[in-house]
Amino acid sequence: MSGAAGGVRIDHAVSSGTFSLDGETHQVDNNLWVVGDDTECVVIDAPHSVDDILALVGERTVRAILLTHAHDDHSRVAPALRERVVAPIMLHPDDKPLWDLTHLSEDGQGHLWDVDLGDGFEILVGGTVLRALHTPGHAPGAVCFHAPALGCVFTGDTLFQGGPGATGRSYSDEDVIKASIREKLLALPDETVVHTGHGDDTTIGAERAGLAG
Ligand SMILES: [Fe+2]
């Protein structure tokens, strides 16, 4: 547990697996984030293991599976998780090319996500709002989830401790991620805690100096 407001808490764990793109496969550790109260929650990203996620969910009702983007190390088990918890998968539609790389089979059949996220889309869980911020760059449909009442933002691979996410692979753009961070994330208060897709937390204030240029 790493934060609470009005009965809403954030549960966190780390899940290990692989990330594949552009013909390379890397071993990666992904953060798991579950936000909710004692009765309901949302899951942010669905990396490597349904069981790792369900261990954080417990007996609670899952209202949504929120994807920060569709890279396989963030979305691979989303359809399998949906089967278990019967909750909609929400993704920004600009990530369809990346989603299809992981979830479309050779015959063109495959899983789809359920709800299109857009900038400003709000998800209510346990009386707390998570607001989607469309932050393209690492991926075209990359989204951050800002929880004002919790004083935090879930940034996926858009912002890490130490700077922006990687933009060296297909479907990424360095200028676009810098603009996204400047316009959407640096608009948040300095004390906002940044919960990342990989590695340690940071804050908007701690990252601001290195990003302002
Ligand atoms: Fe990624």
From TrEMBL:
Query: According to its UniProt record, what is one Pfam family this protein matches?
Result: Lactamase_B
Task: Report the InterPro entries cross-referenced here.
Answer: MBL_Glyoxalase_II, Metallo-B-lactamas, RibonucZ/Hydroxyglut_hydro
Source species, domain of life: Bacteria
Could you tell me which CDD domains the record lists for this protein?
metallo-hydrolase-like_MBL-fold
Domain Metallo-beta-lactamase: from-to ranges: 29-198
Q: What is this protein called?
A: MBL fold metallo-hydrolase
State the species of origin: Nocardioides kribbensis
